[in-house]
Amino acid sequence: MRYSKLGRFTLILGALALVSALALAACKDDDDKDKTPAAEETPAGDETPADGADAIDISSVPELEDGVLSAGSDIAYAPIEFYIEGTETPDGVDVDILNAIGEALGVQVEFINTGFDGIIPALQTEDYDVIMSAMTITPERTAEIDLVPYLNVGQGVLVPAGNPGNILGLEDLCGLTVAVQLGTIQVDILNEQNAQCDEQMTIVTFDTNPLAVEDLRTGGSDANFADFPVAFLDAEESDGTLELVEPAPNPQPYGIGVRKESTELKDVLADAVQAIKDSGTYDEILAEWGLESTALP
Description:
The protein contains 8 helices and 14 strands. The strands form 5 sheets. It has a 5-stranded mixed sheet, with helices on both faces. Strands 6-3-7 form a 3-stranded parallel sheet. The two termini are 35 Å apart. Strand 4 (82-83) and strand 5 form a beta hairpin. Helix 1 (93-105) packs antiparallel against helix 8 (281-288). The chain is an alpha/beta fold. The protein is globular. The longest helix has 17 residues, at 263-279.
């Protein structure tokens, strides 16, 4: 299942720890933006590059010698990355940020749809140059790859409307069935919580988060656990059948994944993130998606 409300929607994050403080914020107009087809190249430089972009030297970066920055991404995680309805064109905050990074580096950007569970092995076998896929930075992942931080995002619990299980936090998931996407940090968090449960929760994993949400919607599970912006949008689009429990108050950074040996690429990506922050492009992108509170300091 893919999300359908992809042209224009409202999303606001007032503070990651207080859902009650959320108010309607930004709206997104597809016609005002350049789109990057999955596994197709989109020329950079059609617009004015980010301030300082011409100072980023990529001549020593082997991955960019062909003028293309290719990214593995699990494109089923709105509003972070998703396909525009009826197309194979990816959209989302990750897509916009990487396009801005590509523009700052003076290269084309290519998105390659990849299942999240195998996304790190595919990076290591050089199926693409980087991972750009809502990947939370964890010690386990940094042992395998390097990650360049670009957002701070917390988690949220999605439940049926009315919250029949009276779930107020992770500890209330003990003894229940929880649907979650395979390979995500949420699986790790649930396993850690399970170690503290007197009655074990049943963790049911799915290849994509939309499948996990569908399991909740059809009564197969009691809750869904996902990144907060994703869970928030799922609740908004559920026609009142789902609601969001207050998210975990400890947001953790997303990172752009690169191979350990790709030190030059890692350095220029960090420079490009700083360049789009300095130019204001970064803040504009987050504001357009209503994700201002996820900005890095």
